[in-house]
């Protein structure tokens, strides 16, 4: 349980997991989805603004924790970067859904 808490630490981790649970997304689409989302995405209280620097830091942290994978499409200018949930993140989401 403590490990799950560590993985989910951070106010934007759950909204990112929710957005990516529907499939891989490019950075700007991911940011737009989270910004336009309602309570179903587990947004932090107080309607905070998601800044690009904050999203980038959250994605890097989640990648280091093994929850998100980053894919760069070779040969594209500018580089096309997309993010997807790892198998570990998908298992974590499934476990959280069954624990409800």
Explain this structure.
By secondary structure, the chain is α+β, with helices and mostly antiparallel strands. It has one domain (2-99): Arc Repressor Mutant, subunit A. Helix content is 50%, strand content 14%. The protein has helices at 2-7, 13-20, 27-36, 52-64, 87-99, and strands spanning 25-26, 68-73, 80-85. The chain has a 3-stranded antiparallel beta sheet with strand order 1-3-2. It is globular and about 45 Å long.
Tell me the overall shape: globular
The CATH level-2 architecture is identified as Orthogonal Bundle
User: How much of the residues is beta strand, in percent?
Assistant: 5-15%
User: What is the fold named in CATH at topology level?
Assistant: Arc Repressor Mutant, subunit A
The major beta sheet can be summarized as:
3 strands, antiparallel
Number of helices: 5
Number of strands: 3
Order of helices and strands: HHEHHEEH
What's the Cα radius of gyration? 13 Å
- Classified in CATH, the superfamily is Winged helix-like DNA-binding domain superfamily/Winged helix DNA-binding domain
From the N-terminal CA to the C-terminal CA, the straight-line distance is 14 Å
SS class: alpha+beta
Q: What proportion of the residues is helical, as a percent range?
A: 40-55%
**Chain-averaged pLDDT:** 86
For the record, the count of structural domains works out to 1
User: How do the strands line up in the largest sheet?
Assistant: 1-3-2
Poorly predicted parts:
none
- For the record, the CATH class is Mainly Alpha
């Amino acid at each position: 349980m403590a490990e799950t808490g560590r993985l989910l630490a951070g106010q934007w981790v759950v909204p990112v997991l929710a957005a990516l649970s529907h499939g891989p997304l490019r950075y700007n689409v991911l940011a737009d989805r989270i910004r336009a989302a309602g309570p179903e995405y587990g947004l932090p209280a107080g309607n905070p603004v998601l800044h690009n620097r904050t999203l980038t830091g959250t994605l890097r942290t989640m990648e280091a924790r093994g929850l998100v994978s980053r894919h760069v499409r070779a040969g594209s200018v500018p580089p096309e970067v997309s993010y997807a949930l790892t198998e570990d993140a998908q298992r974590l989401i499934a476990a959280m859904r069954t624990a409800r």
